[in-house]
Amino acid sequence: MNTDLNFRKKQKRIRIVKSTLVTYMMLLPCLIILVFFVVYPLLWVLRYAFFEYDGFRTAKFTGMDNFIRLFTRDADYWKSVGNTAIYAIGKLIITVPLSFMLALLFNSRLRMKSLFKAVVFMPTVISTAVMSMIFYFMFNSYNGIVNQLLMKASLIAQPIEWFGRDTAMLTAILVAIWGAVGNYMIYFLSGLQTVPEELYEVAKLDGANYFQTLLYVVLPVLGPVLQTVLMLAIITSLKGFESIMVLTGGGPAGATDVMYLYVYRTFFPMQGEATFIPQYGYGSAVAIVTALIAGAVTVVYLRASSKMDSE
Amino acid sequence: MKGNRKKIACLSMGIVLSVLASAGCSNTPKTEGTVTAGGSSAAKTTITLWTGQRADYVIREKKLAAYNEASEDTEVEMQIYTEDYATTVELSFTSNQAPDIFQVVNNAKYYVDRGMLLPLDEFLTESEIARYGDLFGIDQVNMVDGKTYTLAERGITYRLIYNKDILEAAGISAPPKTMEQVYEYSKQITEWGKDQGIYGFAIHLKVPASVGERVIDQVGFRNGISAYNYKEGKYDYSVMKEVLEPFKKMYEEGIMFPGVEGLEIDPLRTQFAAGKIGMYLYGSWEPAIYAEDGQFPAENNWGVCTIPGINTEAPTGKTDIKNAGKSWGISSTSKNPEKAWDYIKYMLSDDYMKEYHEEGYGIVVIPAVAEIAKAPDMVGMDEFAMSTDLDRIWPVRPDTTGLSVEGKNAYDTYAAIILGAVDMEQGLSELTDRYNVALDKAERDGITERVIIADFDASK
Fold this sequence. Notes:
The structure holds 2 protein chains of 2 kinds. Chain A is mostly helical. Chain A folds into 2 domains: 2-40; 75-310, Orthogonal Bundle (MetI-like fold), CATH 1.10.3720. Chain A contains 13 helices and 2 strands, in the order αββαααααααααααα. In chain A, strand 1 (51-52) and strand 2 (60-61) form a beta hairpin. Chain B folds into 2 domains: 44-151 and 325-382, 3-Layer(aba) Sandwich (D-Maltodextrin-Binding Protein, domain 2); 158-321 and 396-444, Periplasmic binding protein-like II (D-Maltodextrin-Binding Protein, domain 2, 3-Layer(aba) Sandwich). Residues 8-41 of chain B have low confidence and may be disordered. The chains are: A mainly alpha, B alpha/beta. Chains A and B meet through helix 1 of A and helix 1, helix 3, helix 8 and helix 16 of B.
């Protein structure tokens, strides 16, 4: 009897071990990729943030020097943090409402809406570099199509310097909005399609007009979607720098320099005859602080939104 | 049974995926290429060559095809990286994927310090060395600690390029001789031509590094001004004030072409070719660009003159001949340095260089070639031709051999000063402090040597 019980226990244990082994074997490829492409680079950055290192010479341990430099002697970085805030807020306050309005439009009975949806969504699948290069030519101060159209429509008398010190950030925000609006529109549209038809009917019976229905019926149902869209929009706005790199390179005179572009340039500086040395150690320290700033903003938003949820 | 098969299948798939993933992550060992050329059965060794130069692509490719056709054992593959070339080369060494030959864009010292170059001495014969005359063995530029790492090939000279038709129509009889005249003429042209979309002066400020070294520094050099004081071995950026002032003034007064803040060199060239820009400063690439079969054939009469003086019509300084003294290098990681040298030797040969020069792709500086090559039949080439009165190779500065400076570099600061984003005095004073601090530290750490030339004379 005992032998039989032991045998069964043993069999069960073997089955559990086999099943666990299968699970781990299935996870192995992802784990390897995770370790190589996420964990290792992270550890690398964490280590070199405390070193002076240019990629070739032996790294020299400098303790907290890189962080002290960042917090006490690098005004350009903190300017780029300010620029990032302007870029993110400017992008958010237009992109989110605009995406929502477009989703409402495409959720109504509109002719050829599939075509319009495809057109609005198209920027999401176009390469950021290509898109930015096209915008670079379109916003060209001298003979760009944007100025020409505005002048032909008599809206402006003189060409606008779209990449000037006072306007370059606005141009970067406009390009960012164009690239993001289709993506968020799709999230909102899928959310709108989950609002039960009965809710609209009940609101109608209660005498609610279109805007009251939108405010008191649709928006509360869309809460979780809005929360996700806002979180994604905040993160991508804080991280975005590719289109700025192509459009202005962070210029003129640092007017569009954003945090992640700054981090990029410490690792891969522009080079000419005068060599600008990569500063991997300092760049790592800047990358850590930048990630903490982006993370802190996201956490603050998530806490605030979950508090609103519970209220 | 069925469950077992499923598990076996799952396990196998897991193992295969793991292997594939690890294979994908692994560094593929660099092996000798065995490209078979022209259907021949003989295996050829592949030599990879990287360049950051796009302007001479046509002749480079033509000559390369001829070499590959004639060679029985070597196939050379050329790759052009026009964006971030210098960074791409450096990264290729850290990832063990460096080419056999690469175009040397910084001074040899920079690469030697990083262990990227092989010395060429074992390949050089007496007659080979003689071909290069004074351009052989320039300390730190192509020679480090008595070893030669690269050789002279071509050089870039810098001049002022102007539209003759525009100057004439605006009532200007001759190109400017001073920077004050550049300002005055530009103002005159803009006032005359603004309604037709014609402006006096342009500069491509979207790329401050290019403007800094090819425009601002060159105006300074021509006037004997350098932010690095060779006599004392210190930086003093305050001397750049008089160089930057005319540019700042032209920008502030709206004389410059609209949108110079976001302008790159190619859009600038297209507008010059279309007759919308009166003047700009740049290098000896321009004649080939505006030639009939060039990138942007010019639709107007244009000319070239020397870089104007500051407060004088006869400046005694000389512009810096860029790239002179350096050309190609063999990677320290090359498994076939002899074959790589054979190709470098071919590229620097009299025949190759003569054709390169005569077709206007660049000004060849190898003395042996300069003696036999005819001047290219192209507008502007005579004025861009190297002259002992106008051009020289400036000695290396610490910031061209690996100086790590905190904060904004000099060229970004120049751009910010021109655009009015940084106060001139404050910006230049901060540059002086930061570059000197960096130099002191680099010297202390044994990274860079302080260059001191007690009898330095910018006019020699």
